[in-house]
Amino acid sequence: MMASSDVDVRGEGSLFSDQNPSEMDALCPSPPGPSRPQRHYERIGGRTGTSFCQTLIHLLKGNIGTGLLGLPLAVKNAGLVLGPVSLLVMGVIAVHCMRLLVKCSHHLSAKVNRPSLTYGEAVQYGMENVSWLRRHSQWGKRTVNLFLIITQLGFCCVYFVFLSDNVKQVVEAANTTTFSCHVNYTNQTQLLVPSYDSRIYMLFFLPFIILLVFTPNLKYLAPLSLVANLVMTASLVLIYFYSLTNITYPINLPKVGRAKDYPLFFGTAIFAFEGIGVVLPLENKMQRPQSFSLVLYLGMGIVTFLYISLGTIGYMCFGEHIGGSITLNLPNCWTYQAVKLLYCFGIFITFALQFYVPAEILIPPLVARVSERWETAVDLLLRTVLVIFTCALAILIPELDLVISLVGSVSSSFLALIFPPILQIIAFHTEGLTPLTTVKNICISLVGLVGFLTGTYIAIVEIIARNGLKHEETFSSYMVQ
């Protein structure tokens, strides 16, 4: 997914200071802002900004990515009936939490006389609103920003695995690729090219991604980003078409999945819905921010529909054989091999956008400590180290579905479900929150906390189990030889 974070960057050499870089900032810079805050978020002097449609497109872009392609497997883990119902409930809760974040930002920005706030700043000023939390308010902002960094680097790890799995499948089935697009339920093809481990492909992509993140300004990638969005949209249309036209009847799939697999569903689903990082940057950039609620409900309504429909249709089409990404189940014909490659191109470009946020937080304070003649060399070195770090994590966990579930459970749970309800409680505790609102917020945060604990635990257990199984298979193959 393209989650654009509103994390804080430069300022007094701190890793977590008061500016907010995001890919939206780089590709869509903000015009000069108002000189004073407005309680109703009206712009002064006809401020120019993004229009309703532009904001809607950015919101869709910020929520649709690799997470969408993993939802058919998520529905399998939850069940054909429980899965879509759970996605709907999670969508409603996620949108509600996004709305809470915007509401708290408005309230707190008016109190502190600021035109706008970032996610981290909103938590900081919310904590300052509570006497016994005031002295620790900086840690609130740093905690939010830490989870935003973890999320962005997690996305980068997912992209490494996604690229390697899909390109591996295309390359190794190249000699048997045909023009006949028949159903391939088992996701197996006759390979005339030696099968290499997917981690070899990750290492192949590593130097190209390093060169990509050396781009000095993301504005240079704007044309490629536009092309990437177009080809990813076309790829999704073809995936929908194939899945809808190849559903077999009768459909004998479990209506409810196994209880132990449900935490994996939660991790994947919340990974897909974790677009809360784009909410405040987009709202702050709107020409008419008072219309943002409509943008949010319309955009997230579309996103939720796409998530439920593709998750359900993909599972109905491929059944028990569904892979960590639905692209891995597409037939071995040139049309759908092209779909995989086009989507990979989109994800490759998106890597630079996701990488921009943690790089701009972690690198500038370190570069500021060296002499001017070494600044460029140190900057490039640190970018290289960060990319190698994400690649190494991907190599350690080369399972697409489990990486998605783990990232979603660890970081997205806090950002999308746990922090916003707590923020409303501390931001409005002197305004007379009703007991019902407080109970509702506590319940949402508890759902996020339980999902974090169970999802993380099950994902780690599955990762260990699969790695152990792979080692046994490798050892057995070696003994046979």
Could you please describe the fold and organization of this structure?
Helix 7 (137-172) runs antiparallel to helix 13. The protein is mostly helical. The model is unreliable at 2-13, 29-46 and 184-192 (pLDDT under 50). It has helices at residues 23-27, 52-63, 66-69, 71-78, 82-111, 119-128, 137-172, 198-213, 222-245, 262-273, 279-285, 292-318, 334-367, 375-396, 400-427, 435-480. The chain contains 16 helices and no strands. 67% of the residues lie in helices and 0% in strands.
Shape: globular
Radius of gyration: 23 Å
Kindly report how far apart the N and C termini lie. 43 Å
Q: Approximately how much beta-strand content do the residues carry?
A: under 5%
Helices, by number, come to: 16
Order of helices and strands: HHHHHHHHHHHHHHHH
Helix content range: 55-70%
Labels describing this entry:
481 residues, globular, mainly alpha
Secondary structure layout plus pairing:
Layout: H1 23-27, H2 52-63, H3 66-69, H4 71-78, H5 82-111, H6 119-128, H7 137-172, H8 198-213, H9 222-245, H10 262-273, H11 279-285, H12 292-318, H13 334-367, H14 375-396, H15 400-427, H16 435-480
Helix pairs in contact: 2-12, 4-5, 4-10, 4-12, 5-6, 5-10, 5-12, 5-15, 6-7, 6-15, 7-8, 7-13, 7-14, 7-15, 8-14, 9-13, 10-15, 10-16, 13-14, 15-16
Give a brief outline of the structure.
The protein has 481 residues and is an all-alpha fold.
